[in-house]
Design brief:
- The protein has 279 residues and is mainly α.
- The chain folds into two domains: 154 residues, UbiA prenyltransferase (Tetracycline Repressor, domain 2), CATH 1.10.357; 123 residues.
- Helices cover 72% and strands 0% of the residues.
- The protein is built from 13 helices and no strands.
- Helix 3 runs antiparallel to helix 5, helix 3 runs parallel beside helix 6 and helix 6 runs antiparallel to helix 7.
- The longest helix has 28 residues.
- The N and C termini lie far apart (49 Å).
Length: 279
């Protein structure tokens, strides 16, 4: 049972919550111990809450998941965790997330509570509404990023928030494109050509917003990060359109070495740029 619970928690997807560190990373406070500790609390609050939501979501999708070759292997769909057990662990992990949020601030507790309610609505209703489902996923990333900035009391430009929004839309649309080619149900809701047009629009806006974010930064060296970002975007497009992957962005980070190295190189570049004393 223990390993089934761990599997259902989807620890690999906790990487999505690393967005909470964006604020202190770009502000040059990544090595500020106090801010790092409080941001880590934010990370675990989102992570445990998300795991609780995964249990709830899989209970809602149990019939559909059992028809899917990959999702049918999930513990709840496979019957290794019963519905009643699933509800219990969903409540338990969400409670853990809220408890951690209490130790951060009352305002952040309200954010986590709102995040949980939004995702419950997504599991029950919103994911069935075309386009809205993708925007909800994107909004989740924006909430994570802004939460990290608010809790750490670190300023964040509107250009960067727009970058996060378009990046998350880019990843979400890539996932939908993968579903169209691999899940018969999704073919009824989306068409590959339509998704390609949306991806093109989002990609163009992502590049423009990041360019403005870089050139308006107080660190002139940020302009040199643009080629790194372009390579990452272009390679991910290659993965989505040519290799027809993208169903699990968190897995692509591990499987596609060029993506992993790009993220690592970009992170090191930002740390060195924002912490010139390390040079």
């Amino acid at each position: 049972m223990f390993f089934e619970i761990i599997k259902e928690m989807r620890l690999k997807q906790w990487t999505k919550n690393l967005f909470v560190y964006a604020a202190i990373l770009f502000h040059g406070d990544f090595f500020n111990v106090d801010l790092l500790i409080i941001t880590t609390k934010v990370f675990f609050a989102f992570s445990f809450s998300a795991s609780g939501i995964y249990f709830f979501n899989d209970i809602c999708d149990i019939k559909k998941d059992r028809k899917n070759p990959k999702k049918s292997l999930r513990p709840i769909a496979a019957g290794k965790i019963s519905k009643s057990q699933g509800y219990f662990f969903s409540a338990l992990f969400i409670f853990c997330g809220l408890l951690i949020a209490c130790h951060v601030s009352v305002f952040f507790l309200e954010i986590i509570f709102s995040y949980v309610i939004l995702n419950f609505l997504y599991s029950l209703i919103l994911k069935k509404i075309i386009i809205i489902d993708v925007f909800i996923i994107s909004f989740g990333f924006v909430i994570r990023t802004v939460s990290g900035a608010v809790v750490a009391n670190v300023p964040m430009t509107l250009w960067f928030i727009l970058c996060v929004m378009f990046l998350s839309l880019f990843l979400a649309l890539g996932k939908r494109r993968y579903d169209v080619f691999n899940l018969p149900v999704e073919k009824k809701n989306f068409h590959a050509d339509f998704l390609d047009k949306l991806i093109n629009i989002v990609t163009a806006n992502l590049i423009i917003c990041y360019a403005f974010f870089a050139v308006t930064s107080d660190q002139t060296n940020m302009i040199f990060s643009i080629p790194i970002v372009l390579y990452g975007i272009f390679y991910y497009l290659y993965v989505v359109t040519v290799k027809k992957e993208g169903g699990a962005p968190d897995e692509i980070l591990y499987k596609e070495k060029p993506i992993l190295f790009t993220v690592l190189i970009y992170t090191v570049f930002i740390i060195l740029t924002r912490n010139t004393d390390l040079l």
